[in-house]
Amino acid sequence: MKPFVLLATRAEDLPADEEYALFLRYSGLDERDLVRVRLEAEPMPRLDLDAISGIFVGGGPFNASDPPERKSRVQHRVEAEFATLLDEVVARDFPFLGACYGVGTLGVHQGAPIDRTYAEPISVVPVTLTDAGAADPILAGMPTTFNAFVGHKEAIRSLPDTATLLASSPTCPVQMFRVGANVYATQFHPELDVDGIILRIHAYANHGYFAADELESTLAAVRRAPVSHTSRMLRAFVERHAR
Length: 243
Prior knowledge:
Blueprint: E1 4-8, H1 13-27, E2 34-38, E3 54-57, H2 73-92, E4 96-99, H3 101-109, E5 114-115, E6 120-129, H4 131-135, E7 145-152, E8 155-156, E9 163-169, E10 172-179, E11 183-186, H5 194-203, H6 215-223, H7 232-241
Parallel strand pairs: 1-2, 1-3, 3-4, 4-11
Antiparallel strand pairs: 5-8, 6-7, 6-9, 9-10, 10-11
Helix pairs in contact: 1-5, 5-6
């Protein structure tokens, strides 16, 4: 099998390694078949799409909607690299699944307005499939409404005509969309389980996702409802596109 690639941007080793472990666990891939590239540490290599099966994008600290002067040199580089990559991915309708930061990368590429209108605190939210979502092959067998982990400072305000809406939540209208037949982005985190999100809450306690006195209430928020369905879409993506 040709490998899949995980493009990651987390600078902190502990959550970065846990993210990779979660993608391995829930995709069903092993380390030989899921190559991780840490973009915060090195430039994106030239990806030969004919030599790989598909691309995953993990979450991360970058906000697409921040003004240019507030973005680091690394963020500017990563954004330029994604723009070039997505030109080819979208043109070829190549298998791509971006989780959380995938909305920032694919959304910007497609011209979607991204701002803080529909930001969501770290929590569990009910996500509901659209008719297109219910018919989508990587969402096959998912309940019409399922719980998912979220936590983001920005979101897509409105979806461009080039994209198909697959899922929404009451507080964020664009939770998942598709461009073409094979290029996906989710606002929620399909790779996360409760242990994984608790690790991230502690790792990013000082990154502005919640106030200093909200740690315990944030931990309670991610435990208040079970999240048991979202990870299946990672395995479905792999099973559909492994070659």
